[in-house]
Specification:
With 63 residues, the protein is mainly α. It has two helices and two strands. It has a two-stranded antiparallel sheet with strand order 1-2.
């Protein structure tokens, strides 16, 4: 099982969640947060290797 939490979200996000079956909201939010965690880790790894973002190598000047 998990831990129950209560959050406040903007109206547009609430509308999207309202469109889901009540039993699917937790799974939907869990998947979104896990994807975000993976995305943040990937972004940090790219930045650590000299990339500012997807497809954008950091330009380092030597002047």
């Amino acid at each position: 099982m998990g831990r129950r939490v209560t959050i406040s979200v903007p109206d547009d996000v609430a509308e999207q969640l309202d469109a889901l079956a009540a039993r699917q909201v937790s799974a939907y939010v869990t998947e979104a947060l896990r994807r975000r965690r993976i995305s943040d880790g990937t972004r940090a790894a790219l930045e650590a290797t000299g990339h500012d973002g997807p497809g954008s190598p950091r330009v380092v000047r030597s002047d």
